[in-house]
């Protein structure tokens, strides 16, 4: 489904990703852990096509297509979703209007008709209820004045509406108390099936207690230095990341 | 002297010679002042950023209106709740005497009135400062005057819509005079539209709001690129009078609007929301002046503009707090969005404060569209073009949301969205 090969990328001419390899098959949940500055957020931005994140070499194939050749909106319509660590506040553009436009754009790209306002509203209300967001948030400006936890839940609400094929969750647990964390995790788990895949980027093992990964990878200095199953996350939790320094240059475990 | 102004002066002279009504001495005075007024150039402070060249060599016909040809939007506007007064190329087309005017209010034209009521003679030209050159032109050349009088304590729920259209080769001079009696309430909507051809509209309106009266006012100048316009709306507020006004202006080769709010009685309260949008080679120039002449009044002005293409927008916001106007609360907020490197915004808050116990806040910003917002919308599948429209619209939507006439804001929204869709990056 998603095949990242030897990906090198830079921001403001600083090399951040240095030959990253990752293969995500349908239905799999991959956790990516690692210290600050390892390139975790950069990976999400590069995959979603953010301006200023330059791909220097390597390739990314998504459903057999060259992902890096697509505009950000095309990637989204193709089924890529990035839940942001710091969602942008956009006063004046209502959440509802925004999501209607996004869902319609995706449906149109798939040759489907736009949803009627009433049908869409029904879906949006259900999505809000699932992540415990009051309905008033649909009318408010996108993320405008939302608390940290509300922003994260709003991201998951968008995910529920867009029904993507690959979801990248960029530190969706940061700044959440345990109840909010459960809400986010339940939202994600409700979407898990044989075809939908997740890349869960996180600092802490805590989120992975609720979203059980099939694979755990350690990202350090722009590449994956170790991969394992869910038990690796526990190991990291107790050992920290200091051991990374003892790894050799191309240290694959 | 240029051809247009020379022609206007000649018409003004013959108009004054023929005038025999109670306004003739007022017209003569305006003409005399006009004859002393030099044609503004870029060295004239009030016209520093706006060239009048586009108008200078034009010859327009003002003698009769073109046949009425309505856009869909214009038709839909008429269908909204309220009374319609149609002005085509400066000529009133509606049979005013046949209007079903609500109890407590009269609507007339000056020509129908025969004898000019004394209040009209006393008020005409008194809210509009004499400094506006196109206002002086309008004093003399307005074909007729729409006179609206709301009696004391009348609560008029029917909006009065004064709807202007301009068509190719025409010049329209229109004039409106409104009086709200004590504790009266009314809503007046002024809309200016035009076809895509060259024309000139010069429309002025004056509002006199008696103690405790409340006016809800809208002025939308939705002209096209070649349809030039000048004009203004001017408000005089007595004690505890309340004004809530929303202005929307599209640019053209020449667009200039002057808004004056005069606080004449204590505890008057004025709120003005204004939006201007320019694109292509258009320009738009909004000058607002708030005169705090007496103590304890409040004014709040929110002005937002967007400039795309090679468009040029100018906003001059003057607040004048007179020596006796203690305890004034005045706030002016101007935010602008530049969509291109070639677009231009000139913004100038102008505060003149002679009282020492006042609160007066002002701010002006010019910014570019936020890349992070654009990326966020696109990352969900919204096209770049649509995202730009949403963001531009979002920038001014807060002011549209504040309009209390919802049917009117529903009418306006798609027009703004269409406008944003056409605006150049």
Annotated CATH topology of chain A: Rossmann fold
Strand content of chain B: 35-45%
Q: What is the count of structural domains of chain B?
A: 1
Q: What gap, in angstroms, lies between the N and C termini of chain A?
A: 25 Å
Which ranges of chain B are low-confidence, i.e. pLDDT below 50, for 5 or more consecutive residues? none
Biggest sheet layout of chain B? 10 strands, mixed
Mean pLDDT of chain A comes to 91
Summarize model confidence as the mean pLDDT of chain B: 94
Overall 3D shape of chain A: globular
> Numbering strands along the chain, what is their spatial order in the largest sheet of chain B?
2-1-5-7-9-11-13-15-17-19
Which pair has the most extensive contact? A-B, 32 and 24 residues
Quick one: how many beta strands of chain B? 19
Summed up, the domain count of chain A is 1
End-to-end distance of chain B, in Å?
38 Å
What is the CATH architecture assignment of chain A?
Answer: 3-Layer(aba) Sandwich
Radius of gyration of chain A: 18 Å
Question: Helix coverage percent of residues of chain A?
Answer: 25-40%
Q: Can you count the helices of chain B?
A: 10
Helix and strand element order of chain A: EEEHEEHEEHHHEHEHEHEEH
Strand-residue fraction of chain A?
25-35%
Number of strands of chain A: 12
């Amino acid at each position: 489904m998603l095949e990242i090969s030897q990906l090198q990328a830079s921001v403001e001419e600083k090399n951040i990703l240095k030959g990253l390899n990752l293969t995500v098959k349908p239905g799999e949940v991959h956790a990516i852990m690692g210290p600050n500055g390892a390139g975790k957020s950069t990976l999400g931005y590069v995959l979603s096509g953010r301006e200023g994140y330059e791909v220097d070499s390597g390739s990314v194939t998504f459903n057999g297509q060259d992902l890096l050749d697509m505009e950000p909106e095309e990637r989204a319509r193709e089924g890529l979703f990035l839940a942001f660590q710091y969602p942008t506040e956009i006063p004046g553009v209502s959440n509802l209007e925004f999501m209607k436009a996004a869902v319609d754009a995706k449906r149109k790209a798939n040759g489907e008709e736009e949803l009627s306002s009433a049908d869409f509203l029904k879906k949006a209300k259900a999505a809000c209820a699932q992540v415990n967001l009051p309905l008033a948030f649909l009318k408010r400006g996108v993320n405008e004045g939302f608390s940290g936890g509300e922003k994260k839940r709003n991201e998951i609400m968008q995910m529920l509406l867009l029904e993507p094929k690959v979801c990248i969750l960029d530190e969706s647990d940061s700044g959440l108390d345990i109840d909010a964390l459960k809400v986010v995790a339940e939202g994600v788990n409700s979407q898990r099936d044989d075809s939908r895949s997740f890349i869960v980027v996180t600092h802490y093992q805590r989120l992975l207690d609720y979203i059980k990964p099939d694979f755990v990878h350690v990202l350090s200095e722009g590449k994956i230095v170790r991969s394992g199953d869910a038990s690796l996350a526990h190991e990291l939790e107790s050992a920290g990341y200091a051991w990374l320094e003892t790894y050799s240059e191309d240290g694959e475990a | 002297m240029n051809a247009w102004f020379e022609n206007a002066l000649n018409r003004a002279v013959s108009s004054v010679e023929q005038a025999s009504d109670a306004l003739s001495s007022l017209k003569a005075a305006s003409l005399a002042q006009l004859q002393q007024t030099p044609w503004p150039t870029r060295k004239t402070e009030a016209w520093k950023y706006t060239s009048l060249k586009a108008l200078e060599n034009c010859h327009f016909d003002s003698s009769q209106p073109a046949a009425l040809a309505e856009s869909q939007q214009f038709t839909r506007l008429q269908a909204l709740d309220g009374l319609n007064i149609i002005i085509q190329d400066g000529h009133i087309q509606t049979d005013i005497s046949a209007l079903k005017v609500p109890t407590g209010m009269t609507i007339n034209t000056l020509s129908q009135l025969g004898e000019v009521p004394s209040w009209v003679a006393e008020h005409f030209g008194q809210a509009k400062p004499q400094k506006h050159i196109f206002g002086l032109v309008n004093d003399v050349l307005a074909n007729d005057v729409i006179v609206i009088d709301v009696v004391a304590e009348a609560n008029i729920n029917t909006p009065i819509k004064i709807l202007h259209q301009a068509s190719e080769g025409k010049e329209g001079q229109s004039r409106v005079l409104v009086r709200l009696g004590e504790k009266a309430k009314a809503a007046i909507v002024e809309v200016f539209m035009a076809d895509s051809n060259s024309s000139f509209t010069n429309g002025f309106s004056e509002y006199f709001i008696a103690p405790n009266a409340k006016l809800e006012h809208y002025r939308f100048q939705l002209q096209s690129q070649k349809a030039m316009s000048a004009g203004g709306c001017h408000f005089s507020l007595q004690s505890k009078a309340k004004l809530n006004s929303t202005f929307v202006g599209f640019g053209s080769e020449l667009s200039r609007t002057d808004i004056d709010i005069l606080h004449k009685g204590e505890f008057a309260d004025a709120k003005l929301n204004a939006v201007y949008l320019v694109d292509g080679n258009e320009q738009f120039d909004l000058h607002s002046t708030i005169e705090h002449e007496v103590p304890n009044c409040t004014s709040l002005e929110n002005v937002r503009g967007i400039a795309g293409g090679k468009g040029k927008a100018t906003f001059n916001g003057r607040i004048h707090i007179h020596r006796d106007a203690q305890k004034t609360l005045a706030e002016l907020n101007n935010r602008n969005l530049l969509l291109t490197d070639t677009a231009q915004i000139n913004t100038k808050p102008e505060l003149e404060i002679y009282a020492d116990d006042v609160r007066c806040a002002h701010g002006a910003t010019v910014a570019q569209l936020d890349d992070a917002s654009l990326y966020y919308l696109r990352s969900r599948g919204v096209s770049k073009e649509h995202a730009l429209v949403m963001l531009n619209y979002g920038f001014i939507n807060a002011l549209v949301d504040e309009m209390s006439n919802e049917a009117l804001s529903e009418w306006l929204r798609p027009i703004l969205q269409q406008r944003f869709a056409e605006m150049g990056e």
